[in-house]
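Let's see one such:

===
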Amino acid sequence: MFGLHYNLERSAIGMVVAIVLVASIGGFIEIAPLFTIDETVEAAPDMRIYTPLEVAGRNIYIREGCYACHSQMIRTLRDEVDRYGPYSLAVESQYDHPMLWGSKRTGPDLARLGNKYSDAWHSAHLDNPRDLVPESKMPAYPWLLRTQLRTDDLANHLAALRTVGVPYTDEMIAYASIDAFGQANPESAQASGVAERYGEATNIRLFDASGQRLTEMDALVAYLQVLGTLTGATAPTQTAEAE
């Protein structure tokens, strides 16, 4: 074995061939499961897509690095299911680009966070976590309440997501900016269009408790409030695998 490796190191062509061969084997192992993706992803006819406001909130979530301390994947272990709720299914990440499963938890998993706390709780927690959880190590994000949300590019975001398989219609893309405002302003004329395009179950309300303008806090809270609620495929009767 060592003699073979020594000879490969002395032959540039041989070393290149060996590297290509090993990389090809690793690549095949990673790519092969994609050919069975239709068999591994559960069917969820009720799965809905993110609204423009929720897409903006998800972008802020990524921008602020929230994924570095919070995962969005509950494993099938009993202690995880008991603490966080039903384990995550592949279909729940069907429209996530990129996926935010995470690899570590400094804070709790957020896969089932939607509607667990009130909008006011989320706004206060993001503004200064220690006002609600004195021992929290989470940084504060007070600028979210002060920063007006940019909406003029939301149509481009939806169009880009459509190119990778998210079923946004031309109408959804055309009304992206209007729908973002309408979702956070339930008394506005634009609110009804949000429900028509995204479903009656869509959260339409004052997420940051202020109807004066659309803020980044509105968007991030709107996103957090739908985590784990986009499909009913995750039945509460799921049982954990003992390990």
In short: The chain is about 45% helix and 0% strand.
